[in-house]
Every structure is written in structure tokens, then in C-alpha cells.
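Researcher: Next sequence.
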Amino acid sequence: MDKEFVKKFAEKYQDIKELFEKHQELEKEVEAFNKKRYLTAEEEARLKQIKKEKLQIKEKIYKLIKEYEGIEIE
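Model: Next structure:
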């Protein structure tokens, strides 16, 4: 995800901002798991769930950006 591109929309559109913030929170969780040498089965399942959720959020963000395309961004 191009964070700088999305940030421009997040500054103007609350719905994109909320999704972007949630995506960032999930990214931090992924990073925390990636720092571990070993993951339990539960942690592996949670990591998989987080990655799915991140992808869904990313798709929602880009869908909203596409809807707003053509709107001048201040």
C-alpha cells in the first residue's frame, strides 16, 4: 500500500482515515509476530487472520479512493 498516497485521502475523508488507522494497527501486530523466533499454533492462526483482515481493509480503501477519483484533493 502506498502510504503517502492513502494519507492524502485519509486527511480529507474520515472513512478512509479510520480504515487506514486500523490497517496501521494490524501492521504493527504483524511486525510483532515477525520478531518472534517461533509462533504457537494460535499465534500462526492469528497472524493469518490479521493478514486477511489487512488485505480486506486495503481493498476497501482502494475501492473508496476509486469512488472519490476525480474529486480534487486539497
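Model: The chain has a mean pLDDT of 90. The chain has three helices and no strands.
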